[in-house]
Amino acid sequence: MPTRQALDARASSLMLLLCLLWGLQQVVLKATAHEIAPIMQIGLRSGVAALLLGLWMWWRHERMSITDGTLRAGLTVGALFALEFMLVGEGLRHTSASHAVVFLYTAPIFVALGLHLKLPAERLNGLQWAGIGLAFAGIVLTFFGRSQSVTRAMDPTMMLWGDALALLAGMAWAATTVVVRCSALARAPASQTLMYQLVGAFMLLMLAATALGQTHIHFTPLVWGSLVFQSVVVSFASFLAWFWLLRHYLASRLGVFSFLTPLFGMGFGVWLLGEPLESRFVLGAVLVLAGVLLVSSQGWLVAVNARRARA
User: Is 4 a domain residue?
Assistant: First the structure.
């Protein structure tokens, strides 16, 4: 299995941009939910992004490979990717974008647990286990971080259900990352990994939208803008960049930036949607993000100590 690098300036800058875009995408999906169901929008954006990716691969003379277990792993990550965004789409119908983005981006915690079981190089130490414990304590607290200003606008039971769906989506995302790292896809081009996921999401989410009766679309300038942003920027460009990073850098090191995405998401939710931030939810989110930071920053701490030892 190829050796991954520690993060450099290029990877750090790219991850910062990706976190900003991913924090914004949940808010955009929520803002257009009345005109187009989130599941329908995610399915459409995946189809458009798959077409763009196919053209990009054709231009680069890349071919899809189905050897060495790639096809089976690709079908698996395609199904997991579709499951993740079906859970996100349904969750956004019942909870706020701020809540959804925090629970979705617990994924690095579950990635760390999965890779701990699968790869010796990614074993967790005491500090990382403490981070996981801190994050789970924050998850418990955020589930009860409701205020009257929020529950007047949303049914508290359904909001709890939306939060749970977003958390399950984070687990599905983590499972996708673990499969990519521990299968033949770890040696495949990033474009091929992404193609499996986009095609799987398009097919399965369009079927889900049809089965759930969520195929209505009211085209407005905001909906058109959202579809362009979601298809070209998020599903095509940002996901391609993410899988390129996964192939070249340690997944646990990349996760150190993931704590920024919920911060961006909550900020955009308050700024663009006027969502209130409940004090108990904010406290729980801080614990979650601190736990993610502890789990994901271990590689940097080791590298810093090694440089000091050499000095």
Answer: no
Radius of gyration of the chain (CA): 19
225 to each of 29, 45, 79, 95, 121, how far by Cα in Å? Answer: 11, 12, 27, 23, 43
Residue 42 CA to residue 40 CA, distance in Å, equals: 6
Give the integer Cα–Cα distance in Å for 104 and 99. 9
Q: What is the DSSP letter of 121?
A: G
Residues 65-105 pLDDT 10s: 777 678 889 999 999 999 999 999 999 998 889 889 989 98
Distance between CA 240 and CA 194 in Å, rounded? 6
Residue 3 lies in a domain: no
- Alpha carbon 147 to its chain centroid, in Å, reads 27
Is residue 52 domain-resident? yes
Q: pTM for the full model?
A: 0.85
Residue numbers of the domain that contains 116: 9-310
Is residue 1 domain-resident? no
